[in-house]
């Protein structure tokens, strides 16, 4: 699923997260080393690392929030995972921020509870990083993996805000056979697909675990979910291959005067 916060196709959030990760784990490590060796000047190093970690963490959070809101498919297993990822990161940053109040001076030893808070924060960062890795490597959030002849990633927002009825969902000349476009109609995410037999429209949400079908592959009228490989007939919505068991909803769609019109019941 292509990242929303990207620079020429390169997702920004994963580019920034090594900085807070390194700084904050460095802060916890320095504090532990200082406490173990009695070299109190290391607490000052830890304090600087803590400040840089918090600043870079807040910066990295901005594109992360954008992707959470606009790139992660709603009502999916990845959305639940991304929520846990965000909560773990916010809690970790809060612990590191709270630990700053446990420093009595630039070179004074950090209090035991502040060191403990940073160690817990470091553990949470590791957990959040693990979830982040799963979001990228399994759920492919931020990965643009278009197959040959898939065309450019296309997203259209229906001009009308109506939830039901017939809506204009963009030009009819932007898709070749076996290409798809994601269309937002109200709260719905609908795939508009062009097949050798004409146009088809179906729900974007895979009925297995909510994978984004618009990010999958369309071949011979079948769309394959990018997460676990379920296949659906885009015209009838029927499951062609599991693990999904339930069909996806389909919608009437027709081309008229160079535009596509979708009917949502
Ligand atoms: S989410 Fe598992 S096959 Fe689509």
Q: What is the number of helices? A: 5
The domain tally reads 2
Which hetero compounds are present in the coordinates? FE2/S2 (inorganic) cluster
Give, in spatial order, the strands making up the sheet with the most strands: 3-5-6-7-12
Helix share, percent: 25-40%
Describe the protein in words.
The chain has 265 residues and is α+β, with helices and mostly antiparallel strands. The protein folds into 2 domains: 132 residues; 110 residues, 3-layer Sandwich (Rieske Iron-sulfur Protein), CATH 2.102.10.10. It is 39% helix and 22% strand. The chain contains 5 helices and 14 strands. The strands form 4 sheets. It has a 5-stranded mixed beta sheet, with no helix packed on it. The protein has a 4-stranded antiparallel beta sheet with strand order 8-9-10-11, with no helix packed on it. A hairpin with a 2-residue loop joins strand 5 and strand 6. The longest helix has 30 residues. The protein starts with 5 loop residues before the first strand and ends with a strand. The model has no long low-confidence stretch (mean pLDDT 90). The site of FE2/S2 (inorganic) cluster (FES) has 12 residues, from loops. FE2/S2 (inorganic) cluster binds next to loops.
List the helices and strands and how they pair.
Blueprint: E1 6-7, E2 10-11, H1 13-16, H2 18-37, H3 41-70, H4 77-100, H5 112-137, E3 155-157, E4 165-171, E5 179-185, E6 188-195, E7 198-203, E8 217-219, E9 222-224, E10 231-233, E11 239-241, E12 250-251, E13 253-256, E14 259-264
Parallel strand pairs: 3-5
Antiparallel strand pairs: 1-2, 4-14, 5-6, 6-7, 7-12, 8-9, 9-10, 10-11, 13-14
Helix pairs in contact: 2-3, 2-5, 3-4, 4-5
The protein binds FE2/S2 (inorganic) cluster (FES).
């Amino acid at each position: 699923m292509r990242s929303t916060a990207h620079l020429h196709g390169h997702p920004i959030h994963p580019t920034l997260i090594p900085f807070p990760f390194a700084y904050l784990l460095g802060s916890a490590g320095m504090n532990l080393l200082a406490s173990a060796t009695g070299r109190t000047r290391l607490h000052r190093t830890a304090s600087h690392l803590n400040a840089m970690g918090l600043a870079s963490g807040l910066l990295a959070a901005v594109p992360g929030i954008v992707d959470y809101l606009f790139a992660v498919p709603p009502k999916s297993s990845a959305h639940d995972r991304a929520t846990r990822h965000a909560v773990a990161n916010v809690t970790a940053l809060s612990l590191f921020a709270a630990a700053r109040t446990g420093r009595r001076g630039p070179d004074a030893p950090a209090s035991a509870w502040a060191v403990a808070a940073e160690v817990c924060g470091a553990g949470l960062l590791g957990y959040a990083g693990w979830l982040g890795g799963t979001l990228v490597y399994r759920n492919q959030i931020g990965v643009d993996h278009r197959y040959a002849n898939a065309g450019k990633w296309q997203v259209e927002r229906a001009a009308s805000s109506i939830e039901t009825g017939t809506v204009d969902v963009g030009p009819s000349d932007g898709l070749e056979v076996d290409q798809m476009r994601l269309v937002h109609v109200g709260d719905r995410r609908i795939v508009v697909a062009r097949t050798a037999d004409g146009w088809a429209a179906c729900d974007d949400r895979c009925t297995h675990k909510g994978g984004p079908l618009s990010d999958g592959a369309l071949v011979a009228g079948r769309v394959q979910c990018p997460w676990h490989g379920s296949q659906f007939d885009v015209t009838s919505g029927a499951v062609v291959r599991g693990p999904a068991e339930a069909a996806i909803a389909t919608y009437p769609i027709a081309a008229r005067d160079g535009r596509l019109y979708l009917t949502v019941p």
